[in-house]
Amino acid sequence: MAITDFFAGEIATELLRQLFTISAKAWKYKSIADRLIDMIEDIQPTIKEIQYSGVELPPHRQAQIGMLSTTLEKGKKLTEKVLSARRWNVYRQLTLARKMEKLEKDISNFLKNQILTHILADVHLLRANSDVRFDRVDRSLEMMTEHLGSMKIGGGGMIREAMKIAEATMEIEMGDDSEKFGVGLEIGKRKVKKMMFSGEGGLIGISGMGGVGKTTLARELERDVEVQGHFENRVMFLTVSQSPMLEELRAHIWAFVSGYEGVSPVPNWNLQYEGGVKTQKLVILDDVWTREALDSLTFNIPGCTTLVVSRSKLTEPKATYDVEVLRENEALSLFCLCAFGQKTVPPGFDKSMVEQVAGECKGLPLALKVTGASLKKQSEMYWKGALQRLQKGEPADETHETRLLHHMEASLENLDSTTRECFLDLGAFPEDRKIPVDVLINMWIEIHDLEEAIAFATLVDLSHKNLLTLVKDPRLGSSYASYYDVFVTQHDVLRDLALHLSNKGKVNIRERLLMPKREPSLPREWGRNSDKPYKAQIVSIHTGDMDEMDWSEFDMDFPKAEILILNFSSDKYVLPPFITKMKRLRVLVIINNGMSPAVLHDFSIFANLSSLRSLWLERVHVPELSNTTIPLRKLRKMSLILCKINNSFDQTGVDISTLFPKLADLTIDHCDDLVSLPPSICGMTSLSSLSITNCPRLSELPKNLSKLQALEILRLYACLELKALPVEICELPQLKYLDISQCVNLSCLPEEIGKLKTLEKIDMRECFFSDRLSSAVSLESLRHVICDKDVAFIWEEVEKAVPGLKIEAAEKCFSLDWLNE
């Protein structure tokens, strides 16, 4: 019998099962059965090692394993006879007892010959590289011994250190065609699927240390063909996080499992849903931190399965799969792929040093990815320095979290000072929330004095080094691309690293004053130190509803603050009074993470923000402007996202251009009550970029757009009610980019479009034009047009007349990613 056939048959497992039955039912054989159980349980890990190695053993080893196969097969048949023997047949009982004793002796003698030790060595040798020596095995065993010894509570240790790094680190995504390392992932999928398919719904879990690959396994299960088939493609994946918006998550889950959207309040989870569920459904809850959060998000609906992914064991042991770290050779392959772009060490590179660096990651997938990426394309001398830093370890009295963060700090050593500061800035944003690229780049432009192109390159560099995840978007990096609806994400532990490095020292002297997570109020430590000025340049606050009384304890002075980020979840919010003392404030970001736009109170404090250059308002009611509004004379960029405009722009007596005399970039996105723009907007002579996007009720543009002499970019994306462009648009002397894509009611471009001598790019996807543009042949600077295939013909003559013009026939693309927001 071939070795793979033997172990595939699971003879040992079946024999073990029958021995348990004998031990429980046949009291005469209990002591022998118990001893056999102990022996077989001891050799089962080795059996599984051989079973999943995928390696064919040499003939002499197969013969030895064949002997064991024959012995266990006889034992299996013997146990069947024992179970079927009649109690009154004393002679047969005695005969079978003696045969059981002989079986015990045969297996014991077999093990004493150390055959399994040789088999294990062969498996290890064949699975590793052919030139691996046995001294490496000894060294690995020493490392494992030291490692296991350091796993005592309070002792630290590299695996304990790595505990936080993956699960909380920014989500490092590998492509769909990436290699999957080790048998662990497939074993994990098989075991979790068995739990999923064997019951009628209920709660199951994936648990393990941080960074070990729990989310990766959950994502693989989400995409698995068998899982999709079993649940008929009804699978939902949600990230819960440490500060979850439970009501919002409950609403999403209820809409998914019941098919009823917009139900408020959500019904009691514990009530039986009488309508039942016609099909099986799977809800995957990733990054669950507490049992309380889990209890709020689980429910009693027939046919629904909930898969919980957490560092803690939140489900019953029998319904939990524990993820383990990678084996040594698997870890080395993953490390090499991230460091060299291949699964082996390149010829000529110091292999021993690579193995030592990879070994310091202790099999933790995320640590392998981050460390490998940080050393990519570095010299061997740099590698030696990195190895020395990794080998130093941390003081024994530090907690494993701090040790981990110090360990991961080595990944930042090869960043230049500015890029490192940009990485630290990421700690200013809430965990598990998408960060708008536009906000990040604008922050870096203002506080680090970067040009926009350099700020974008810094973002890409951090992404390449796996220090953040840049959400893929076809527009990203293209000329005239917009970034307000493109995002980055960062997994929790890399964010924790940024927070750890930023929060050193007393609160008054930190350059960044950041709240690690959402709290009902500001940290008490901030209030206790409010008698002295704060030196922070970046201040980030993350709370719920705040009123005057809540702010009264925090009369703080921020004379050096340049960036203020206010994250909250509420339908009303009082702005902090200490804003009036931020005389150097250049960037103000106000983001409401609640379900509906919030009313901001005490907006009058804006009168004191004489240095403000950038304003981002998200999901709030824009305050009404009037002639008494104090102008923001230095404001250059204003973004209104998911806001209620109300009557802010409807006051005919208000001159917008005098309130924002230096405004160069105005973005209004997803503001569904915007019907028209005020005529006075045409007086903004400094305006170079105007983006009015996803505003479905916008029906017309001001007639005097030609006064915007500095306008270079005009985006009107997805303004569904916009029926025509004013002919004055053809008089814009600096216009380089026009985006009218998804303006489905537009029937044509202005006939005099050819006057736009500086126009370089037009995006008109999903615009259904039928008339050719005779004057467009005069667009001498035009080099790129994006349109649907069925309207590309209207540009044929222009393509002949304008050298170098590219007509890109775009495929229709439908995405529901916006639902995640």
Automatic annotation (TrEMBL):
UniProt-listed PANTHER family: PLANT BROAD-SPECTRUM MILDEW RESISTANCE PROTEIN RPW8 (PTHR36766), TIR-NBS TYPE DISEASE RESISTANCE PROTEIN-RELATED (PTHR36766:SF30)
Family, similarity comment: Belongs to the disease resistance NB-LRR family.
Origin: domain of life: Eukaryota
GO molecular function: ADP binding; ATP binding
Protein name from the UniProt record: Probable disease resistance protein At4g33300
Segments forming a coiled coil: none
Species for this entry: Raphanus sativus
Biological process, per Gene Ontology: defense response
Keywords, ordered alphabetically: ATP-binding, Leucine-rich repeat, Nucleotide-binding, Plant defense, Repeat
Boundaries of every RPW8 domain copy: 1-149
Taxonomic lineage from the root: Eukaryota, Viridiplantae, Streptophyta, Embryophyta, Tracheophyta
